[in-house]
Design a protein that fits this description.
The protein has about 230 residues and is α+β, with helices and mostly antiparallel strands. The protein has 2 helices and 12 strands; from the N terminus they run H-E-E-E-E-E-E-E-E-E-E-E-E-H. A 6-stranded antiparallel β-sheet has the order 3-2-6-11-8-9, with no helix packed on it. The protein has a 4-stranded antiparallel β-sheet with strand order 1-12-7-10, with no helix packed on it. Strands 4-5 form a two-stranded antiparallel ribbon. About 10% of the residues have low confidence.
């Protein structure tokens, strides 16, 4: 190979070997299972065990709050929150607007996380849950606050497009009549997000093209030598 091809081939190989691993999509859902009251089967109004939904890359913590202070666990309910099947809600017995749920997703050492989406539903379309509020740090860029209809008799899907960080912090409310389900996030190894620049891609493609051209030109000469 000539002197021009070798550097290009080396650069192309470096790009391929440094391409990032794809981020994994993970989800916390509240399908009925044995994660309430210390590992028992969840039934309506049962307390959800702390850490439900944790993975090797992300630890999950949650609870109810009142005036931003912890006030208990989150609770399970199977049906009635729009069309969601299995939700978590906060502060059983309270419809006070100062009561909210808090869910925190913390990336393990060597990983980073960003929130993708979650679903909110209103219990049997009661007046105080037809509109829900949220305050979310989706991973990077600071907190985002919103207020939106809960979409009864279906539900409201809330999506995010933020950068990666160490922690996702999600607050929603108000009271027991707003339920949450299908909390999705991306998690990836730290440093795995770099995308090759267009010039690098061009160099890689050019390198492969020159290598292919060189091999095609050498093939007739090689055949003549063999004859």
């Amino acid at each position: 190979m000539n002197k021009m091809i070798m550097p290009l081939l080396t650069a192309a190989f470096a790009v391929l070997t440094s391409m990032p691993a794809e981020a994994a999509v993970q989800m916390l859902d509240f399908t009925q299972g044995n994660y309430c009251n210390g590992g028992e089967l969840c039934t309506n109004n049962a307390a959800i065990d702390q850490g439900h939904g944790s993975t090797a890359q992300v630890s999950v913590n949650f609870g109810s709050t009142y005036d931003n202070y912890p006030s208990g666990p989150l609770y399970y309910y199977e049906r009635g929150y729009g069309d969601l099947v299995g939700v978590a809600y906060s502060n059983k017995g309270s419809t006070d607007f100062r009561t909210r749920a808090r869910i925190t997703l913390s990336a393990a050492a060597g990983y980073e996380i960003t929130l993708k989406s979650f679903d909110l539903g209103c219990f049997v379309n009661l007046a105080n849950c037809q509109t829900a509020t949220y305050n979310v740090n989706p991973g990077a860029g600071g907190y985002q606050t919103g207020s939106l209809g809960t979409g009864y008799p279906t539900h409201q899907n809330v999506t995010f497009n933020a950068g990666y960080g160490n922690v996702v912090d999600l607050w929603f409310g108000a009271g027991e009549n707003v339920g949450i389900d299908n909390i999705k996030w991306y998690v990836r190894a730290i440093g795995a997000g770099a995308v090759p620049e267009p010039a690098t891609w061009a160099m890689m493609i050019l390198g492969f093209g020159l290598v292919g051209t060189s091999l095609r030109r050498r093939a007739p000469a090689l055949r003549r030598q063999l004859v």
